[in-house]
């Protein structure tokens, strides 16, 4: 026998027109979608960072070719810092700092840059704040 919570969802043998599910809210779409709040520690600027990295990879890590994507990423990072987003965490600050340091130093050819990026993006265990 079905439990009381499932009783309303199961079809009745006597009445085949009875709906299988009883919605608790009207089945209509809302006119707008609510603003979703980010959880503490949730990443921002991921899209900008991935576009910037893809541009670098396509253009053999030349900053001149990806100037717009780099600027978009830094604008997003500065907005996230002002809002108090996840860029106040230690690990995120290290990553953004390493990227900006690399961009400012202009290290040289691709062979010298790639090992540096591997060190930046290596998986590290969760660090305490």
From TrEMBL:
GO terms under biological process: mitochondrial translation
SUPFAM superfamilies: Cysteine alpha-hairpin motif
Pfam families for the chain: CHCH (PF06747)
GO cellular component: mitochondrial ribosome; nucleoplasm
Molecular-function GO term, any one: RNA binding
Keyword Disulfide bond tagged: yes
CHCH domain sequence ranges: 45-78
Keyword Cell inner membrane: no
Protein name: Coiled-coil-helix-coiled-coil-helix domain-containing protein 1 isoform X1
Gene: CHCHD1
